[in-house]
Each structure stands twice: as C-alpha cells, then as structure tokens.
Write a structure and sequence with these properties.
Layout: H1 11-30, H2 33-44, H3 54-63, H4 68-73, H5 77-92, H6 103-111, H7 120-133, H8 136-147, E1 163-171, E2 174-182, H9 215-236, H10 238-246, H11 253-271, H12 278-290, H13 293-305, E3 315-317, E4 320-322, E5 327-329, H14 338-350, H15 354-364, H16 366-376, H17 378-387, H18 391-395, H19 403-413, H20 422-443, H21 449-490, H22 511-532, H23 537-549, H24 556-573, H25 575-581, H26 584-602, H27 606-612, H28 617-624, H29 626-649, E6 652-661, E7 668-674, E8 679-683, E9 693-697, E10 706-708, E11 711-714, H30 717-720
Parallel strand pairs: 8-10
Antiparallel strand pairs: 1-2, 3-4, 4-5, 6-7, 6-9, 7-8, 9-11
C-alpha cells in the first residue's frame, strides 16, 4: 500500500492506514492468515474456520470473551501502527552496507548478537524480529538507551536521538506520529531541523555561538510557538487532536516555562562538554510533530534577525544552508524553477504581468536580473527576502548588506546554486599573503618586540594554512584524475582519456545526488589507500572519521602524505599509461611539487615552527627564546618563496565568463578569466557553466591566451573536503 502523506486529513484514510498497518504486522508476526489461525487454535484453544476473514476472526474471539488485540496481537491498533511504522524506518533509512552499518549496531544492542545481513531480505527479517518480540513501551526505552551511546548513524558522529520518517517520530517522548510527512531521501538526514542548534560543522566547530546567543529567549520563543501551534492544531486538525488525546498526549506550556531557567543553565554548561540535556531533544521531537521544516526555518530566521540567536560557523547540512544572516532550505534540483519562481514572486510584489517579467528574467539571466533588482529597486529586493524568510537582510539598510552574499542566498533559496567564489578568494588571499610577507621582510627591524612576535606568529600560522590549502587542492585534483581514468578504463575507453569536451565531474541533473556520489567515490578511494599502503594509525583514524562522519581533521603533514600516496597509487596501479595520457608538463609539476614541499618541510625545524604558530605557547616561546624567533625570521622568506612556486605549479583556476561564436570562422569557444585577471580563450570544450570556477590544465605548456582541448575539472574541493 502506498503511504499516505495526508494521514490526518480524513477519518477514512486514517482507518485505512491503521488497517493496513495491522495486516502487515500480522504478516510479519505470523507470516500469513493461516499462521494467525494456527496461533489462535494452539495458544487460545479456539477453533477458527480456515475461510474466516479478519472481521470474522475478531467476532469469534469476542464470542469467546477474547480480544483480538489484547490476547492475540498483544498491542492496541495504534501501538501496532507505531510499531509497523518503526519497522519501515528500520528497513528504509537504517543503512547496512560494506562501509557503513547503522542497522546492525541497534540490533546487537537489543539481542546481544550480530545479525548476518547479506541482502535487503535479511534486513527485513531482522527488523520484523525487533518489532514482534518487543512491545512499544519496551522498544521506546531501548531506543532511548541506544541513542545516548556513540554509535554511528546516518553519516553522523552519534546516533540521532530524534528521527522523523514518514509520519513517525521517535525520540525521548516515545513513538509518536507527526502531523507532517517526511519522505525518504537518498543520503538525506531524518533529524528534525531544530537539531541544527546543537550540530557541528564537518570540521567539528559549533554552528551556533551559545556564549553570545540569548539561550533563554531562544527557547522561550520556541516554546511559545509550540503552545500556539498545538492550540491551532486542536481546531484545524481534529483528527490529529483525537489521536493525541487517545495516546494521552499533554503539553502544558506553563509547566515547561517553569523548567526553562534550570534547563538553559544546564544546556549552556553541558554543551561545552559536548553533552545535550534530554529536555532539548524533547523540544526537538515536539517541533517535529507539529511544525514543517519551513515553519521551523522561519522561526529560526526571526531569531537571527532579532539577534537572539547567533551563528558562529556558517555551514551546509544536506539541503540546509546556515549563515549568520539566515537559513535556507534548497529545493531539490529537479524541482527547482528559479526563473519562474522569481518572476512569480516579483509579479505578486509589484502587481505586474507575470509573462512580461518571466521574459525579462530569462533574457537577462536570473543572476544578473537579481543583481539589477538589488542595485535599482532595493525595496523589491527586501520584499523578496521577506518572501524567502531572510528577515535579517530585510531589516538592514542597503549599505550594511553584503551584496554578493545576499544575492547568492536568495538565488539558492530558489534552487539556483550560485557559483562559490571561495576558491578564487583563497587564491587572491594567498597572493596578498605573499606580498604581506615581502613587506614584513623590509619593515620588521623597526618593530617593537610585542608587535614583531605577533606578526611572526600570524604570518607563520597563515603560511601553514595556505600551504595546507595548496596541498588539499593537489589531493583533490590528483584523485579526480585517477577516478576519471579508472572509470574510463572500466568503460573500455582506453585511448585519449583526457581529451575531453566537458569537465571532469560534469554535473548536470540531480546536483545533490551527484555530489553525494562524487563524495562517496573519494571516500572509497581513501579507504583503498589505507588497505593498499602502510598508513600510520593516526592518519587511518582521520581517514575513517572522514569516511564515516565527514570530519576533516587532516594536518599539513597529512595532506602531503595523502598526495604522496595518491601519486604512488597511480604509479603502482595505473602504470605509465595514466601519466602519459596527461600533459607532460603537468606530470613534471606534480613530481616537482611533491619533491620540493617534502624537502622544505623536512628542512631543520620548519614543520615544528609552523605547528608551533598554531599553539598558545608560541608567544612565550618567541619571547623567551631569541634563537627560535630568529629561526622563524630566517624561515619566512623561504616560506614565501615556496608558497609562491607551489601556487604557480598548481593548475590555474578559471571562471567561464562568455560563450562566443566567431563570426568569420564559425568556431565556438569560451572566454575565461584567470585568478590573475588575465583572459584566455578555450577551444574544444563544451558543457561548462558560466561564472563557475574550474581547474584548467593546458594541453600544451606554452599556451598563454589560448587553450585547446585542455583538461578541465569542476572545482569541488570544498564540497568533497
């Protein structure tokens, strides 16, 4: 039976849902009606005709003073519906693959034995055992115990204490149906949106700043909204209200308010130790029951606009993008119609003809059109922000709004992924850093001790960060090329593998799914490195954390090791054919970079000084040890030279600015801008996106303003790592 996502809209549909849940539960417990009849006859000594339907079976039991649910199934119809919904959760979103297991640990916690799962059928069998051997109350208790343990779940660091799948929410309040339906998603998260308040970024930083956030006002406002929503549900959704009443659900706003001050104190103390009070997850589960994702995002964005809630680290979690100015939930790429939706919103704001506006948006392009709205019709831009729940932008004066960031966020809320300028900005920062070190070399003799030490530490720390960035980009590029080569060979494309008419990692349809597939390939490749080569225990743990938790903990030395291992993998597994398929100058640059970086970092004390700059003891070390300070001063010019030479060897980043057809020759080419602001013409390449950054490896070393059939890689460095 197809799951109904309007479960509480009508009595008839709800009863169908209950009936189907009961029939499916009987099949899981007794295999079929014959097994049910056999059970009744053997256990209750009541004879049932083989031709009896379920209604007849219930009637016969009544005649014998037996209740079908109490005496046979041992659960009420609603408990059975909860249990069967939990079964669907177990088989549909608890992953069980060779590289991530989320079903087995939970099963083992219940039965103290390892399940033997070879296929989906096995998993269904074990899931059926879970819901037929435990009652709802006991299973709820087991789940709460299990979810407090540090087991992996759905790519997260810990088991998710609250999950919402289809109509079921599970958490500290038990198994409870939500008013709202959450469908299955590939690689999706089933945490309610409010969980982001305690989530961390992929690198482990807190997303929200609980030192600066007014936690009391945040949770007080959430509870007020919950109270309002629950009262609204009672009148607007009587069927759901009846369901809540039948399970004994109560929500006393005044009682929750009484506990709030103590809860906030406990919350602020525990979150420093990576602990979360149970009351937080109770609130999360309540919001999952009564609010849609969009309603919670709306509430959080109001709290951000009022500066009650403060973002510490901007990040992305699946389809959510969290920034200091607002949170958006991107529509699925295959559902997004950015030009259509933008024109529709502006038409409603300005009472203009939709068709004319749509034509105007399409002619200008959505990005350019929105830029024009920001520049020339700021009031309309603010009203668009209100429609997209970006209240903070709507509350600010124009000069206070970061234009590029605001436009990007609005565009992404419509489903258009505006190109990230982060990689380009980093290249510009590295060039600025090189100039900064050069300037310091000429001025440091006139500095006082305190200023000098501060400058040394800052320059060493930034130098280390930029060195890591260069190595990280090299790792991404080399693995990209290896993955493309292996994929091409597997498909029988043994010649001209890198003579391409499109970028490596050409993403054109389902962006979220394709990005996740690419990430998965990188994880599998790094896992392969740990099995093929002698990798240190520390690095193996970090790779494992990346694979299972998407946490990036690699140090400068780790990035160099990953680069060395990736090149070694190509040498030992792909033979010379891999390197000979690539431009020769690129191969030489890779070898020279590894050799020179290795030589520089192994030079007396260089890595030690770079590591020291990231620690608090650096100030004391350079104050007390003049020799260390002088060593750092002598090392900075070499650091500058090495970063400059490595940056020059790294494949150039380009932004595609224009598609051109030569009027005389009819040849088509793209114009692109380099990070040095020079322009280049690219021939032989198609299927690139305007304004997106790509790595460009020229076919010939001396090509300057023209590139013919270059190797182009979509820049996904910051998506993958």
């Amino acid at each position: 039976m197809k799951r109904d996502n309007n479960l509480f809209q009508g009595e008839e549909e709800f009863q169908k849902f209950l009936k189907n849940s009961i029939i499916q539960y009987i099949k899981l417990k007794f295999q079929n009606k014959k097994g049910l009849i056999s059970f009744i006859e053997n256990k209750l000594d009541i004879e049932i005709p083989k031709t009896a339907n379920y209604t007849k079976i219930i009637d016969i039991l009544k005649e014998k003073s037996k209740d079908f649910y109490t005496d046979v199934l041992k659960h009420s119809p609603l408990e059975i519906a909860h249990l069967y919904s939990f079964y669907r959760m177990l088989i549909n979103i608890f992953w069980e693959t060779t590289w991530i297991k989320t079903f087995s640990p939970f099963y083992k916690s219940l039965f103290n034995e390892e399940p033997e799962i070879k296929n989906r059928s096995d998993q269904r069998k074990y899931a059926a055992k879970i819901i037929t051997e435990f009652g709802q109350q006991e299973l709820q208790k087991k789940w709460i115990e299990y979810s407090s343990e540090p087991f992996p779940f759905l790519f997260r660091e810990k088991t998710t204490p609250v999950i919402h799948y289809e109509h079921l929410t599970i958490g500290p309040l038990g198994f409870l149906f939500s008013l709202h339906y959450r469908e299955k998603e590939i690689f999706g998260s089933y945490e309610p949106v409010l969980s982001i308040l305690v989530n961390t970024t992929p690198t482990g930083e807190d997303i929200f700043d609980w030192e600066e956030t007014d936690a009391f006002k945040v949770f007080s406002d959430i509870l007020k909204e919950l109270d309002r929503k629950i009262n609204e549900v009672a009148s607007s959704y009587p069927l759901y209200a009846n369901y809540l009443k039948s399970i004994g659900f109560e929500f006393s706003h005044s009682e929750w308010e009484k506990q709030l001050l103590d809860f906030v104190k406990l919350f602020k103390n525990q979150i420093k130790e990576d602990k979360i009070p149970p009351m937080f997850y109770q609130i999360v589960q309540l919001t999952a029951m009564f609010f849609t994702d969009e309603e919670i995002i709306d509430l959080l964005n109001r709290l951000l606009a009022e500066e009650k809630l403060i973002v510490k680290s901007e990040t992305e979690i699946e389809d959510l993008k969290i920034t200091g100015e607002g949170i958006i939930k991107r529509p699925k790429s295959w559902l997004a119609r950015p030009a259509f939706e933008l024109a529709s919103d502006i038409a409603s704001i300005k009472s203009k003809e939709f068709r004319d506006l749509l034509t105007e948006v399409l002619e200008n392009g959505t990005i350019k059109y929105l830029e024009q709205v920001f520049d020339k019709d700021f009031e309309t831009f603010k009203r668009i922000c209100i429609k997209k729940k970006l209240y903070k932008f709507a509350s600010l004066e124009k000069y206070l709004i970061p234009k590029e960031k605001a436009i990007r966020l609005v565009l992404e809320s419509y489903g258009l992924r505006a190109p990230s300028t982060l990689p380009l900005n980093i290249r510009e920062e590295i060039n600025s850093y090189i100039q900064e070190v050069e300037k310091f070399e000429g001025e440091y003799r006139a500095m006082g001790e305190r200023e000098l030490i501060k400058e040394i530490i800052d320059l060493l720390r930034d130098g280390r960060m930029y060195f890591e960035r260069i190595l990280k980009e090299w790792v991404f590029i080399i693995i990209s090329l290896i993955l493309h080569y292996e994929d091409s060979m597997a498909r029988g494309l043994s010649t001209e593998i890198f003579i391409l008419d499109r970028p490596i990692f050409y993403i054109w349809y389902d962006i979220e799914r394709e990005l996740n597939e690419i990430k998965k390939k990188y994880k599998e490749f790094l896992e392969k490195l740990t099995s093929e080569f002698n990798v240190s225990g520390d690095l193996k743990i970090k790779i494992n954390n990346y694979i299972k938790k998407e946490r990036i903990e690699f140090t400068l030395g780790d990035w160099l090791t990953l680069l060395q291992l990736s090149v070694r993998y190509a040498d030992e597994n792909l033979s010379n054919k891999f390197w000979s398929a690539l431009p020769d100058h690129f191969h030489k640059n890779v070898r020279k970079s590894i050799s020179e970086i290795e030589s520089f970092l192994n030079e007396g004390g260089v890595l030690k000084l770079l590591n020291l700059a990231s620690h608090e003891r650096a100030i004391r070390e350079f104050q007390e040890n003049i020799q260390s300070r002088q060593k750092a001063l002598n090392m900075l010019p070499k650091l500058r030279e090495n970063i400059l030479s490595e940056l020059q060897r790294l494949p150039e980043l380009v932004i595609i600015t224009k598609e051109v057809t030569d009027g005389q020759t009819g040849l088509e080419y793209y114009e692109a801008r380099l990070t040095t602001n020079k322009s280049i013409k690219i021939y032989g390449t198609q299927f690139v996106e305007l304004n997106f950054p790509y790595y460009l490896i020229p076919r010939f070393e001396k090509e300057e303003d023209i590139a013919t059939y270059p190797v182009i890689i979509t820049n996904l460095t910051d998506n993958v790592f």
